[in-house]
Amino acid sequence: MNLHGLRLFHAIVRYGGVTRAAEELNISQPAVSSQVKRFERELGIPLFASEGRRLVLTDAGMQLTGYAERLFMLEQDVENFVQDFRAGKKGLIRLTATYLPSNFLLPGWIARFKQMHEDVELVVSTTNTRMAFDQLLRYEAEIAVYGGSGITHSGVHWDELFEDEMWFVVHPDHPYAGKEIELREMVAEPFIMREEGSATRERLVSLCTTNNLAAPRIALQFNGLNETISAVKAGYGANFISSLVVKEDVQQGRLARVFVRGVQLKNTVAVCTRAGEVLSPAAQHLVELIRQEASLMK
Questions:
Q1: What local confidence, expressed as pLDDT, does residue 97 receive?
Q2: What is the pLDDT of residue 150?
Q3: Which residues fall in a coiled-coil region (predicted)?
Q4: CB-based contact 190:217 (threshold 8 Å)
């Protein structure tokens, strides 16, 4: 169908005549008349009838008017969507995150983002480090928010936000609570950790390997961060974890630190994206907000 002809037909109906339609479209009146007549011939349907000097719609013209209005309203909706998408007011962001930022940072950050970008849809998945980068590189996520040892990964751009300390924690009644001990003593304790693929678990194993010690005994394994902490609070085992997660529990006496000689490790929180790619406008706005919020935590 000749959409230009349909647009001229719709303009004549909308503005009540050829003269006004020509003025609104900045086209000569003869041009409008001739193109609409050609449009009628192409359709093989008369759209207008003459009543003296006045044009009136035929029955077919009246029905076509309804279709034209819906079509051009949809066109306007498309234009509005594209405009809002370019401005970052609409869109879909798929975000994957490791357990640390997903549980302790993202809820507040995303809430503030949604207050300013209500029409942007966010889909968030929580997983371990290995799966988070897999999802990013398989285009299942546009952004990955990572908390861990700051490992490098081919094809991933890192935007480091801040660092915090890694702590060994136990129940306050544990014999090592608040004491300074050797690493070999600490890793002889039963540990409660997350599943394989967790960057923190792999870091603890690497720490033992670097110091020529046997791998720690993982006495309990959970697929969630809060569960590992709850088990230690209940009185069993030890955990090696970001201070961001347990600082409040230590301050309020629900957990206690163990100070291990010679071990001062940092944890990196970063926003990761695919290297060399431009983020969607909405995703770029989210990353900018995350940077601002993280800067307040340094």
A1: 95
A2: 66
A3: none
A4: yes
The reported pLDDT for the residue numbered 296 is 87
DSSP for 155-174 reads TEEEEEEEEEEEEEEE-TTS
Residue 166: count other Cβ atoms within 10 Å of its Cβ.
21
Residues 6+ apart with CB under 8 A from 3: none
Under 8 Å between Cβ of 207 and 263:
yes
168 close to 260: Cβ distance less than 8 angstroms: yes
Q: What angle separates helix 243-251 from helix 225-233, to the nearest 10 degrees?
A: 30
Q: Which two tokens stand for residue 104?
A: 């302790």
Low-confidence ranges of the chain (pLDDT < 50): none
Query: Of 277, 282, 279, which is closest to residue 85 (Cα–Cα)?
Result: 282
pLDDT in tens, 259-298: 999 999 988 899 999 999 999 999 999 999 999 999 987 6
Token pair listed for 223: 């697929």
Beta strands in the chain (DSSP E): 48-51, 54-57, 91-97, 120-126, 143-148, 156-170, 180-181, 191-194, 218-222, 238-242, 256-260, 266-274
Report yes or no: 54 and 44 within 8 Å, Cβ to Cβ.
no
Instruction: Name residue 157's beta-bridge partners.
Output: 273
d(CA 250, CA 235): 14
Instruction: Locate the DSSP E strands across 118-188.
Output: 120-126, 143-148, 156-170, 180-181
In the numeric block, which tokens belong to residue 134?
């897999």
